[in-house]
Amino acid sequence: MLDFQMSRELRPNCPAIAPSMLKCDFGDLQTEINQLEAAGASLLHLDVMDGQFVPNLSYGPMVIDRIRERTDLILDAHLMISDPEKYLDDYLRAGCDWITVHIEAVPKPDQLLEKIRAAGRYAGIAINPGTPVSAISALNGKVDLVLVMSVEPGFGGQSFIPEAVEKVIEVRKVFSADTLISIDGGIGPVTIPEVASDVNIFVAGSSIFDKPDYETAIREMTEIARSNSSPHNS
């Protein structure tokens, strides 16, 4: 498993649009994945919710395993769960390339992040709107990805929280230049320019899946992100 994952290209061309699979049609998963691949997606964002850390349920490693069988795209697992360490091996076995946990769920995540990296995957830390960047600043050099939540986690279709703009700027100042910064929540053509100078990965749900043409939606948002990005985001 380790050799398989290490041979996978884990870093996409940036900026990149990450379709949030919470919004996909799970009754026709193969078609959805095929359409996203044809549309130019380089990764899929997997929203894992346990009904405890967030007040909603989604899916877990068994579903992700089925997704892994159907695509070679990067699988970006966002674990919105209260005890990620307990289930980490399940997500590693399911084939997740990136695994992000919340600082609010694991206040001292160093050992967990080290285990993710030791398995040849990208380790990420997520931060909720109400949590200060100082809560994760000591993790500089210990993570590959910082995910800034621009909505409260747990439900799709929420509006972008403007305070996320300053938080993204602060994260970019604190973390090394090779750390990927992702943003999740209310992301679309209108909000991307507000954060594009400091963000590499834009998680998008409704702005892709509510559109009739995935390719057009992803291309337009990628172009907007690229035209507003800084050199360190390429």
Put the structure in a nutshell.
The chain has about 230 residues and is of the alpha/beta class. It has helices at about 1-5, 30-40, 60-70, 85-95, 110-120, 165-175, 190-195, 205-210, 215-225; strands at about 15-20, 45-50, 75-80, 100, 120-125, 145-150, 180-185, 200-205.
Describe the structure.
The protein is an alpha/beta fold and 234 residues long. 33% of the residues lie in helices and 18% in strands. It has one domain (2-233): Aldolase class I (TIM Barrel, Alpha-Beta Barrel). It has 9 helices and 8 strands. An 8-stranded parallel β-sheet has the order 1-8-7-6-5-4-3-2.
Alpha-beta classification: alpha/beta
- What is the helix/strand order? HEHEHEHEHEEHEHEHH
Give the percentage of residues in beta strands: 15-25%
Residue-averaged pLDDT? 93
Distance between the termini: 29 Å
The CATH topology assignment is TIM Barrel
Using DSSP, what is the number of strands? 8
How large is the radius of gyration? 16 Å
CATH architecture: Alpha-Beta Barrel
Please give the oligomerization state of what you see.
single chain
Biggest sheet strand order reads: 1-8-7-6-5-4-3-2
Number of helices: 9
Uncertain stretches: 1-7
Number of individual domains: 1
Largest sheet: 8 strands, parallel
